[in-house]
Design brief:
Largest sheet: 3 strands, parallel
Distance between the termini: 62 Å
Strand content: 5-15%
Radius of gyration: 20 Å
Number of strands: 6
CATH architecture of the largest domain: 3-Layer(aba) Sandwich
Amino acid sequence: MSQQPIQSDALGALRVQIDALDNQLLSLLNQRAHVAEQVGEIKRAEGSPFFRPDRVAQVIDKITQANPGPLKNEHIAAIWREIMSACLALEAPQRVAVLGPQGTFCEQAAIEFFGSAANLIYCANFDEVFHATAAGTAQYGVSAWKTPPKAWWAAHSICSCVRPCMWWVKSACKFASTFCASSIPMRASRS
């Protein structure tokens, strides 16, 4: 039979305080989610894109600049990316085609960029990622090239077509390619 650890009065009081703060955080997160649902309704009516990486970056930059600590900025950024991912899923679930099975770097890159609320569609090869995106099965695709070795390439669509065509891959280098579901083949560019 295991014995419960003894808790001091001071530790018990701090745990009560943490529980109260957790309830406040939960309430605020749900308030934020309700506002996000309203944003989604307006975006739907206006035909605006649901996922805007520039807005995500702007919010995360603003919140990390306001961070007084002791939490580190990279932890705040990860928390906010997940909050924004969960709220975006309420507006419109994001479908992301990912090269490879679960546990790959492409999956990790997709989760780091879109958050864990995105619906990942695992593709067996590079062509499937493009086909899933072009067919509308996925709104975004994540893949990788290994030229030069171990380099991950970033790609953002800069076209003005109406199809969802943002295409992103984690990058360690400064090269970018453009991919759009309505304008295959890809064009190389510098970012």
